[in-house]
């Protein structure tokens, strides 16, 4: 999918703890969600990972802090090649910047 020319669906979801990431991957993909922001994931640390259909960036609490807060951005692999960069601000805010026809 060319993010420069297409419209796409995006969503936000307060998940209150991420159990099975495979289930979330399946739900988002079946509903044709290209970008999803997941809050209250309780995922620890910061980083990126790949699922079957998505590239995921996440920012959460320290390793030694009991699971709380946490935010994730799930980008469908059809648009993840448009990622310019991502920044982890804290366990409640993360940024992912995408290249588009009009800039970013």
Query: SSE order in H/E notation?
Result: EHEEEEEE
Percent helix:
under 10%
Major β-sheet annotation: 5 strands, mixed
Q: Identify low-pLDDT runs.
A: none
Whole-number tally of structural domains? 1
The first-to-last residue Cα distance is: 17 Å
Query: Residue-averaged pLDDT, rounded?
Result: 81
Our estimate of the beta-strand percent is 35-45%
- Give a count of the beta strands, DSSP E runs of length 2 or more: 7
**Rg, Cα atoms, Å:** 13 Å
Shape: globular
Strands in their spatial order, largest beta sheet:
1-2-5-4-3
Please identify the structural class as seen in this structure.
mainly beta
**Count of DSSP helices?**
1
Characterization of this structure:
By secondary structure, this protein is mostly beta strands. It has one domain. It is built from one helix and seven strands, in the order βαββββββ. The chain has one helix at residues 21-30; strands spanning 9-14, 33-39, 46-50, 54-59, 71-76, 83-88, 94-98. The chain has a five-stranded mixed β-sheet, covered by helices on one side. Helix 1 links the parallel strand 1 (9-14) and strand 2 (33-39). The longest helix is centred in the N-terminal third of the chain and has 10 residues, at 21-30. The radius of gyration is 13 Å and the shape is globular. The model has no long low-confidence stretch (mean pLDDT 81).
Brief write-up:
This protein is mainly β and 104 residues long. 10% of the residues lie in helices and 39% in strands.
């Amino acid at each position: 999918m060319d993010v420069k020319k297409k419209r796409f669906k995006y969503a936000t979801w307060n998940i209150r703890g991420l159990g099975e990431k495979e289930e979330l991957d399946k739900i988002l993909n079946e509903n044709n969600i290209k970008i999803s922001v997941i809050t209250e994931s309780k995922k620890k640390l910061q980083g990126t990972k790949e699922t079957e259909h998505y590239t995921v960036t996440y920012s959460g609490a320290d390793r030694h802090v009991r699971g709380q807060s946490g935010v994730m951005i799930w980008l469908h692999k059809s648009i993840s090649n448009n990622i310019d960069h991502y920044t982890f601000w804290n366990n409640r805010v993360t940024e992912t910047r995408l290249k588009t026809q009009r800039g970013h």
